[in-house]
Each structure stands twice: as C-alpha cells, then as structure tokens.
Design the sequence.
C-alpha cells in the first residue's frame, strides 16, 4: 500500500477529516496575487475582481479604522470621471463616495454643467477613510493609487475632473499648488486621459467666495470635453 493511502486509512480510523487542496479559481488566484504585489496584479482585474480586492484590502493601516471601503459609484462607461480625496464619516458609513454635505454641493456643481450624478463615475484617491479626516499619507496613497488607475482603465473616461488639492496633486504626481493647476489640461495614466482641476466642494462650503472660480473651471472642463468629442 502506498504511504499516502496508508496515512489516509489511519486518519479515517481516527475519525480525522482530511482536507484536500482543490484547484484555485482564477478570481481567487488574481486576488491572492494582487494582495502580494500591488500594482502589477491589480492591472489585469475585471470589475468584480477589483471590487473584491478593494473590499478585502489591508495594504495600509486604514483598514483597521474603516467601517467599510468606498469603492466608487456611477456609470462604468461614463465619459466623465470625478476624483475626490477620500471618504469622510458619511461615506465610511454608507460605502458610497460624496454622500455628505460636500456631496450635495458636488451634485449641484455637476448638474450645473448638465451632468446628472448617475451619468459620471465617482471615485476617490483613497478607498478608506483617514481617521478624523486627516490628509492621506504618501504611503497610503502609494498603496491605493493602483486601484484608481485600474478604475480609470476600465471606465476609459474622456475626461477626469479632479476636486481639490489632494486629488489633483496625487493624480498628477506634483506638489504644485491647486491655484496653479487650474485652467490647464493635464494628463493621467496609461491612457493619457485629460484632467481638469478645480476646488473641492468641502472647501467651497467653507469659502463660498471661491465658487465663482469653480464655475469658471467647470465651464472650462465642458469646453475641453466638447473639443475632445468633436475631434474623436
Ligand atoms: N470628500 C471627498 O473627497 N470624497 C468623498 O467621497 C467625500 C468627501
């Protein structure tokens, strides 16, 4: 009798159940690899695998304090993508980006350029809430940014609107102040997607006098989008 069979008999006689390793399904394999090596593995994920990967993510310390991850929401084939900073308390509770007071203003800003919230895809630089809404740490951004890159590759938006300094600087990999990033067309990621920068709605709630400038940015974004789609 082969050793393996003998062992099986002993274990059976002892009432010990044997665990047989089964073949690993592709999605599980993709997730396991993604957890082991951030950027490369996330690159190939489809929507369900990416969503699963984000919701299980423990790449930085924020998983210890989050209620849940905030993946992103909206039309997965949207022409417009909105990128904010990170979930706040309301978003952490509800699992959806921009649902608090800043979200109400964001919806109004989008509506002002004829974009219903449902027509865009909304995501953040970070998928987990930083405690006390502190700024994201560079290492947290480094771990999380591959998810956003993949979301952009899957949505393939014609244009990205970056709301606020943190979103703009991290998308563009720069520390140029927000005021200097406004009014130009920047580029993001492998697809060279055009990026327009404007103020964060939470900042505009605190500083309503800047709303006029944000309106200029939104009109600029609309114009760039129209020019791009005429060319396309
Ligand atoms: N602020 C952000 O930048 N993102 C959110 O999802 C909510 C508030």
Sequence:
């Amino acid at each position: 009798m082969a050793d393996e069979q003998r062992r099986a008999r002993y274990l059976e006689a002892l009432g010990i159940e044997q665990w047989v390793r089964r073949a690993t399904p592709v999605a599980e394999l993709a997730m396991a690899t993604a957890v082991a090596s951030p950027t490369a593995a996330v690159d190939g994920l489809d929507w369900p695998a990416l969503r699963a990967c984000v919701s299980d993510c423990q790449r930085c310390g924020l998983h210890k304090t989050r209620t849940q991850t905030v993946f992103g929401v909206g039309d997965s084939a949207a022409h417009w993508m909105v990128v904010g900073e990170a979930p706040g308390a309301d978003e952490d509770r509800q699992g959806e980006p921009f649902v608090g007071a800043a979200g109400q203003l964001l919806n109004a800003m989008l509506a002002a350029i004829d974009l219903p919230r449902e027509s865009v895809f909304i995501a953040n630089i970070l998928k987990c809430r930083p405690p006390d809404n502190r700024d994201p740490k560079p290492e947290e951004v480094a771990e999380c940014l591959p998810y956003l890159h993949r979301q952009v590759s899957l949505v393939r938006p014609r244009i990205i609107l970056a709301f606020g300094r943190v979103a703009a600087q991290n998308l563009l990999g720069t520390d140029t102040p927000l005021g200097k990033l406004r009014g130009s067309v920047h580029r993001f990621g492998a697809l060279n997607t055009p990026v327009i920068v404007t103020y964060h709605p939470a900042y505009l709630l605190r500083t309503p006098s800047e709303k006029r400038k944000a309106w200029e940015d939104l009109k600029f974004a609309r114009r760039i989008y129209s020019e791009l789609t005429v060319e396309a």
